[in-house]
Amino acid sequence: MAIDINIPAVCNCTKLRRAQRHITRLYDTCLAESGAGLRATQFSILGYLKTEGPKTMMELAELMTMDRATIGHNLRPLERDSLVRIAVSETDRRARIVSITDEGLSRLEIGKPGWAKAQAEFERQFGAENAKLMRDMMDDVAGISFSFH
Amino acid sequence: MAIDINIPAVCNCTKLRRAQRHITRLYDTCLAESGAGLRATQFSILGYLKTEGPKTMMELAELMTMDRATIGHNLRPLERDSLVRIAVSETDRRARIVSITDEGLSRLEIGKPGWAKAQAEFERQFGAENAKLMRDMMDDVAGISFSFH
DNA sequence: TCATTTTAGTCTTATATGCCCTTAATTGCA
DNA sequence: TGCAATTAAGGGCATATAAGACTAAAATGA
Q1: Is it the case that residue A98 has pLDDT exceeding 80?
Q2: Amino acid A135 CA to nucleotide D10 C1' distance, rounded Å
Q3: Which domain holds residue A48?
Q4: Is B77 a member of any domain?
Q5: Domain count for chain A
Q6: Can you give the pLDDT at residue A132?
Q7: Looking at CA atoms only, how far is residue B85 from chain A in angstroms?
Q8: Alpha-carbon gap, residue B141 to A122, rounded angstroms
Q9: pLDDT at A8
Q10: Handedness of CA B12, B17, B22, B24 (dihedral sign)
Q11: Partners of residue A23 in chain B, C-beta under 8 Å
Q12: With a 7 Å cutoff on the CB, does B93 touch strand C?
């Protein structure tokens, strides 16, 4: 008889998603306490835009390994609150250039202590070296080109 | 002057969430191809219920490191499609006992080849040993008791 | 040039996630 | 015993995520 393996115990996706929920709650809680009114994903998007400069939605989606439709949806509240500006590209009118506004930069600063607190608390418990190993491992995972079909 | 660190590059939450999106797409795609009509989270919930037996929503939430409300929301489509049964506990009428139905077990079986394909593809590219390391690391992350406030 | 194909982004729909507040039930304690 | 505090779950709200269909614009190629 075929031994029925314990799928949840060995599923790489299940484990990764579970850890993601846990760490997101930590960062979201600290971010909320900072009063910036930003969620983890929003903080990431603004952080990327600050660091990398203006980007098209496609570029942003690729940078974050995110679906292009998802980026569009996630930008909606940020644009509504004037934290990002979305303009039609002059060189390709299909593309939209997303850039962070002064208000967005200001919100990032307000949220930074909250982020730093979460980052410090995580590394205090998990270890800074382990955290670095994890980030590198996550980069490797996100970098895989899966062959579908 | 304070050196402006590149937050997205060192943020543990950002890295983990990004990898999670990527691996979820792999598993969701393979699961969809299998024709089970299950998403990654649904496959996990049913897998846990099959392996661990009936659970209250609280227990299920704790098992999956998921918010109590989230479990409730995620069970909705599963209950609607008769993949799980939700009954009031006889010993505590506040609690709801969730159990997998025969239809749920059947769907799990239908999805299993899709899951196995995703699991195999991931480990082919990432390495089975690295995958095991990652799962253990993710367990460690999910097991941390963060001190809030 | 102009028709075909490809590409960027949107809209719709569905699930995923977690917060706050409320309701109902249980537990603990005076 | 009786009431306060606690606990389990539901409802409402907002964001997160992505597939699929669609629109518009650009690139391609005969």
Answers
A1: yes
A2: 38
A3: 12-134
A4: yes
A5: 1
A6: 98
A7: 20
A8: 9
A9: 92
A10: positive
A11: 12-13, 16, 141
A12: yes
Whether B131 contacts B122, CB under 8 Å:
yes
CB contact under 8 A, B40 and A15: no
pLDDT 10s digits, B43-61 = 999 999 999 999 999 999 9
Whether B108 maps to a domain, the answer reads yes
- Residue indicated by tokens 């505590």: B92
Q: Which residues of A touch B15 (CB under 8 A)?
A: 134-135, 138-139, 142
* Mean pLDDT score, B114-133: 98
Evaluated on CA atoms B33, B37, B40, B45, the torsion sign reads negative
What span, in angstroms and rounded, lies between the C-alpha atoms of A111 and B91? 46
Q: Is residue B131 part of a domain?
A: no
pLDDT-derived band at A149 (thresholds 50, 70, 90) equals very low
Two tokens, residue A6: 């314990």
Question: Quick check: A23 pLDDT over 80?
Answer: yes
The gap between the terminal CA atoms of chain B, to the nearest Å, is 30
Q: What percent of chain B has pLDDT over 70?
A: 97
pLDDT band of residue B5 (cuts 50, 70, 90) is: confident
Q: Is residue B147 part of a domain?
A: no
> In this structure, what CATH number is given to the domain that contains residue B90?
1.10.10.10
Residue B32: name the closest of B119, B114, B110 by CA: B114
Which amino acid appears at position A34 of this protein? S
